[in-house]
Specification:
The chain is mainly α. Helices cover 80% and strands 0% of the residues.
Length: 257
């Protein structure tokens, strides 16, 4: 096997384990690593989004079999994701790379603080949206908003979807997380097409994304197995270490670029 392909397989396995073990978007691992390997921020995002197609599909199949996924909700959120992510190529082609990298760093830092201090979103006991029509509309709008920002930064949608759906629809996080993973299937496909249409990514990036994506499927499976045998304390320390390392590597690449 070519050493380049071998390294991509290792990256895919690692990001997949992160997704299965921590429930985090692969971008937290993939983007800093690809920046370190000399890829541009746009190409790193493109590779991260392509990887999401594979890991989110595999993860959603598992969630569906475990009856954790509401397909109806997922389709409406997915429609929004298709629409929102279609703008991601335009965003990456017009916004300065350094600004996007800083925003990625801020979001990673927020995630670190959230888990370090065990900050949890409260579910609205009396959600303002009761009508089924408006509930579906909220799902679509949430998908659009999340698709625009999350795919443009190569991150999962849970960080944005959990507080929005928790407030307006009263959804608990354990219901939103599988929904967010299913949403990523739609938004990542739309985002990849948008990246291609705006010449953000090329054939080499597509091939790299496929290698990493296929390897991430095995990584997700391994991550799920690992979480079953690890203690909560070890899981928490490992999660914070990954976020901390991601911030350090991203900040280093930002300063030296």
């Amino acid at each position: 096997m070519d050493w380049g392909i071998f390294s991509y397989v290792i990256i895919g396995l690692t990001s997949g384990i992160g997704a299965g073990f921590f429930g985090m978007g692969g971008g937290t691992i993939i983007v800093p690593v690809m920046l370190t390997l000399g890829y541009s921020f746009e190409h790193a995002i493109g590779i991260s989004v392509m990887q999401m197609m594979f890991s989110s599909t595999f993860g959603s199949i598992i969630n569906y079999k475990k009856k954790l996924l509401n397909i109806s909700d997922g389709i409406y959120a997915g429609i929004g994701g298709l629409i929102g992510a279609s703008f991601s190529g335009l965003i990456l082609s017009v916004i300065d790379t350094k600004k996007l990298t800083i925003l990625f760093l801020i979001i990673t830092f927020y995630s670190f603080v959230k888990y370090a201090f065990n900050i949890k979103y409260s579910t609205n006991a009396a959600p303002p949206i009761k009508s089924q029509f408006y509930q579906r509309l909220i799902l679509i709008l949430t998908g659009i908003i999340t698709g625009i920002f999350a795919i443009s930064l190569g991150i999962g949608g849970g960080l944005l979807m959990v507080p929005i759906l928790g407030y307006y629809l009263g959804y608990e996080s354990k219901r939103v997380v599988p929904l967010g993973l299913f949403f990523v299937i739609f938004s990542s496909i739309s985002g990849t097409i948008s990246f291609q249409n705006h010449n953000v990514i090329d054939a080499q990036v597509l091939h790299t994304g496929i290698y990493i994506g296929v390897a991430s499927i095995l990584g997700v499976w391994l991550g799920i197995k690992l979480i079953q045998i690890s203690s909560p304390k070890l899981h928490r320390m490992a999660l914070l270490s990954v976020y901390g390392l991601s911030m350090l590597v991203t900040a280093y690449n930002l300063i030296t670029s």
